[in-house]
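>> Question from a student workshop board

For tomorrow's exercise we were told to take the sequence and the ligand below, predict the bound structure, and bring the output to class. My setup keeps failing. Could a helper post the expected result so I can at least see what it should look like? The ligand is magnesium ion.
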Amino acid sequence: MKTTKSPLIFDNYDGESPVATELRRIYHNSKKSAEGRHYKSFLVTSSSRGEGKSTISSWLALTISQFPSKKVIYIDADLRRPRGHKLFGLDNRLGLKDCLADNIDPMEVIKKTRLPNLGVITAGDRVPEPGRLFESEHLREVLNKLEFYYDIVIVDSPPVLPVSDTLFLGSEVEAVVLVVLAGVTPREVVQRTKNVLEDSRANIIGVVLNNATQVLPYFYDYKYYGYSAKDA
Ligand SMILES: Nc1ncnc2c1ncn2[C@@H]1O[C@H](COP(=O)(O)OP(=O)(O)OP(=O)(O)O)[C@@H](O)[C@H]1O
Ligand SMILES: [Mg+2]
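>> Workshop helper replied:
Here is what the output should look like for this input. Compare the format with yours to find the bug.
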């Protein structure tokens, strides 16, 4: 299932695929009931490593950016294992880390993509203790500013259980989407993740069952990720 190099997400994206359809559905249903407006900020996370957070969050960003006049920003907030820059084919210098550590204006670090209404903030250079940066008050300021200038903010994140970064993020966004690697992540682990997120006031609005190629081939077909038999 793993590939040696990261293909660009634009080349793998299929708007007609079941994953994109599911993400459209999550977005469509993601309304603040009292106000009837869509949530503006989404965190995509999972219990543990490698469940597909970066893949699904970038697909969510691409999916929402297909909606008419939606300006979307994707933020790679996984400062430990950043992958967003690879998925979008971008340089990783100057990113979220610089906004949190050095109070750099987030609007200054936005990178353009081939889609005019989709911007990306990469993680930025590695730092020794990335977890500390999420305790900073700059996190709220960064999100506030991006929520003002963009219609939708999508945040890719580290896994919930091993580190606390995601708990800070989860309580700062309006909605959380939980990725579960189908057939791999045990039910109790998913339940524990849900409890931990809810205890930190995260609003879980959807679960995406990601398929590691064969578990649910009829539902999430591997071909939608551009994998060929030799990659499997
Ligand atoms: N549905 C899928 N089918 C096949 N491969 C997949 C699928 N989803 C993700 N992958 C692959 O699995 C690997 C992990 O995916 P990804 O990087 O999106 O996970 P992650 O949860 O962000 O990982 P990390 O915890 O390291 O940040 C990548 O090589 C990705 O291309
Ligand atoms: Mg990732």
